[in-house]
Structure formats: structure tokens, C-alpha cells
Amino acid sequence: MTEQNPTTYDKQRRAAARNREAIIEAAHQLFVENPLVPLTDVAKTAGVGIGTLYRHFPTRDDLILAAYRHDIDRLMSTAEEVLARQDSAKAAFIEWFETLSAYIRPKHGLGDALHSAAAQEAVAEAWGPASAAVAKLLEACVAEGTVAPGHRPEDIIMLMSFLWRVPNNEEGAEQGRRIIGTVFTGLQSPPAGQ
């Protein structure tokens, strides 16, 4: 058995990591446009061969879950960035949840992949970071006076989950904006039981 040069091995690992990232990025882009896009199109967009795609993601469901995890991981780290960019905490809260819904909404067309045990594990993994991000947004809204103190991040996530159920079109976006207005009206009061 021949030993591999450590430098060659490191280059191969970096190339494999780049390929994996390119595949996930391509999948994210193409799944939003068409959840049933052929994986050959994903490979082509990523600039890799179909064999490379299957080495990283043996099944379509594996790729769907990797894209989902990547999207959610990326979003969870942006709460502070959105707060710094927006003029108000309320605007940041709305932008963050609209972005979250844009990541999640197209996934409804991805079939059973997001109902599998692995998908439920991915959702469970995201719960802690999501709660932490929402806690930052809530804290800023409370300080600003647009939300009453005492609301829990987990409750807010459940409440805002309507956003990924509205239609993925302009009518759905308009409906989402109307409901967000109603949500903020309700959040100005302390939670029930306090």
C-alpha cells in the first residue's frame, strides 16, 4: 500500500470541501426555483460531475437535508447583522422572519425528505440556535417598545410559522405582511398569564 503525500491529501480534502459547498449552493438556488430539479442540473450548476455529487450525497434526500441545514445555519447567525442594518428592531424582526420563511417555504415542495427521521433531527438541531436568534430580536423589540416583555422565543417561532404556510407569490407576501401587523398588535400586550 502506498502512502499519500500529506500535501496532496490536504489539497484533495480542500477540493472535496469546495465541491461539497458548490453542490449545496447550487442545490439551494435550484430547489427554490424547482423542487423537482434533476440532480444532473445541480451537478452542472455546481461545476462538478454527477459522480462527485453522488459521492457527497448518495440520495436526493441527503442533498435536500444538507441544503436545508446549510440555509438554516446561515440564517441563525444573522440576527445581530440584521439588527445593525435595519432602522428599527421591529423591521429587523420582520426581515429575519421573512428570510426564514423564504428558506423554509420552498422546501414544502420537496416531498418526504423533510418528513424523515433525519429531517426531524435537522429541525431539532436548529431549534436551539433559532431560539437564541429570536431571543436577540425579541430583546431589541422590547427595548424599543414594540413588544411587551415576557414573550418566549419558542412561542414566537410557533406563532410566526404561519409565514412558511402562505403561498409563495405576491398574494402570499401581502397576506404575510397583514398577519405580521396583527402579530405585532398582539405582542404589544404581555403574554397570557402574566
TrEMBL record:
GO terms for molecular function: DNA-binding transcription factor activity; transcription cis-regulatory region binding. Residues 38-57 bind DNA. Residues 17-75 form the HTH tetR-type domain. InterPro entries: Homeodomain-like_sf, HTH-type_TetR-like_transc_reg, HTH_TetR, Tet_transcr_reg_TetR-rel_C_sf, TetR_SbtR-like_C. Keywords: DNA-binding, Transcription, Transcription regulation. This is TetR family transcriptional regulator.
